[in-house]
Amino acid sequence: MNITKRNRMWHSQLWMLLLAISASSSYLDATRGLEGESSSVKTSVFLSPAFELKPGSVVNNFYYDIPFPRGHIALKSFNGDVIDEQGNSIPLHETYLHHWAVYRYYGDKKAADEEDMSKFIFVRNSGPCINVGQYFGLGSEVRKTNTWVPDPYGIEVGNPTEVPEGYEERWLLNVHAIDTRGVEDRLGCTECKCSLYNVTVDGHGQPLANGYVGGLHCCYDRTQCRVKGGFGGGLRKLYVRYTVKWIEWNPSIIPVNIYIIDVTDTGDRPSPHSSALNTQFSCKIEYTVPPCGSVGEENGNCVDFRRAKAVLRRGGDIVYGVAHQHTGGTGAALYGEDGRHLCTSNPIYGEGEEAGNEAGYIVGMSTCYPKPGSVSLKDGELVTVVSNYSSVQIHTGVMGLFYIFVAEPQPKQNTLLPRGLAAPWFTELAESWWILVLAGGIIAVVAAAIFRRRNETEGYQMVRS
Hints:
Elements: H1 3-32, E1 42-47, E2 51-53, E3 58-63, E4 73-84, E5 95-108, E6 120-123, E7 136-138, E8 153-157, E9 167-179, H2 186-190, H3 194-197, E10 236-248, E11 254-262, E12 287-289, H4 293-299, E13 303-312, E14 316-325, E15 329-335, E16 341-345, E17 347-349, E18 362-365, E19 367-368, E20 376-377, E21 381-390, E22 395-398, E23 400-407, H5 424-431, H6 433-458
Parallel strand pairs: 8-11
Antiparallel strand pairs: 1-10, 2-10, 3-9, 4-8, 4-10, 5-6, 5-7, 5-9, 11-23, 12-22, 13-21, 14-19, 14-20, 14-23, 15-16, 15-21, 17-18
């Protein structure tokens, strides 16, 4: 047989072997999908109860026991969007989503009133702020902010061993939205300037504090921002459409703790005996950015710099980080006790009119996904959060929150298998046994053919002419 021809056959068979290996690998990669998702990720889409808004009006509603995936699961992401009755996304310059927040709690199964909070046991995040207890929460930036929890991590919920007897796990959604169609000052309305809302007391009927010019205490539920005379926009019905991605819990998933650090945190913890209305929380949630003035503009010093320190009780690896800021924000960062950089999150401003790209609004925040094990915290570490805003003009009711997901430290493994083989992708690979068997069969057949062909050719002698 011609040597060149035999080499071609050998190379062809070798190519078939590599193709079989590649095909099985490609199949497994395809099942993992986008964003690192595997085929085991489930997606649930829900609608909040309807809320109605007219030009200048405000809703700050709390929806109890909302539809949510049940059972012992690992949450992988949560996103929301404000839509109309036809399912169209509403641009921020029409309805400004000040914020939405999702809270986890245990509800009494026998309670007659599902909104009776005295029957609730709230399950807070792991952060230091008592009054910032949500699991998820963003605002105008929700459409372009990644909330994906990378593999092999997940937010563990629904563990039946943790639910008190007589209770069940439930979820609460808070939606704070402002209709800015036809208002006199769109930015002023979204920043809740008190003069535009014509209020002198807060949502609890208490007089506003001296010097308080804008913020949450002036744009509470059913308040009204000033609208231009003669504007005729009507009442419309809206919803929050929220999408939850999750997987069934299994021992290979590494649970994460959610920490929310607030740049307004003073570090003063309230007494456990304080009443809800009189409690002075250390985390103020919002603050005012004063204007820098003409001197500051001339010197180029129109940046408001705030920072705060907080102790994180449990250490581990940071696997995700993102900040929450309002219009005027220029970025936020988190630093460790020794000054090392942990994460920076910068705003993405829109440039158009369409939903998700509205000019002048923050439509997304950049996120951090450190390489596993590369950014770690020790137990009880004192971290510093920094929040920067432009101070060319006054900004009221702004926020500087920083979310991080921290993976719990894992015990030393006694197995000879590397950690990666305990990850969800390995479970998925095992579930795909049939494609592995098929690929293995093809590989075995081709390998045997190559081996046999080589043995045959070893007995040939070159014929000389």
